[in-house]
Amino acid sequence: MKKVILGICIMGIAGISLGAIYKWVDDEGRVHYSDKPTDKHKTREVDIEPGPSPEEIDTARERAERLKQRFLDEPVKKVVDQSENENRLAQEQYCLESRHQLAVLQEMHLPVYRDEQGRFRAQWQYDTYRGKREYLDDTMRAATIKQAREKVAASCKHPDDAKAQELAREQWLRSEYCATHRVELEALEQPSARAVRQDLEEKRRLVKMYCGE
Fold first, then answer.
1. Do residues 86 and 128 both lie within one domain?
2. Of 107, 145, 162, 187, which sits with the fewest C-beta atoms within 10 Å of its C-beta?
3. pTM higher than 0.70 for the full model?
């Protein structure tokens, strides 16, 4: 019975004219459908609602296709947006690192060296680096400053922004203070140091201030 009804629905949707459909019940109680009446059993004509017009079918297909395409495009859009956001963040980080390196090189009153990872560092009272050093002479330093400026120009949207460069310098100084106070706090917290409570509290305050903890 379900197959017959399904077939009727499909043919109706397809816009095919079926004519009259008849229904009867045989002696065993089974329901039958046919396009012709029978004389053996009581038969009645089945009312069939007309199916949608060809225009309605085309409209429904177009809408379904639009919905399908939207669901297909949405994950792609999310991936593209995520990739663009990651690229933007990476570009901003590279810009900031380039500004930090330029800030170090421009501290002309301090000796500057290259560490084992190739980063430039300044030798001063807050320097915590203990690895191998390659110091820059005046000629090499001038050439390196030029290269650092070129990196800033290539990676930053506003390379000539003096405020942005000064902010980068302040961030670099803050990171140096943070590293120094961390090292000193770790030393004070050793049992063998026998540090007084006041010194520990002051050093913890400085770590919190410069490291944001």
1. yes
2. 162
3. no
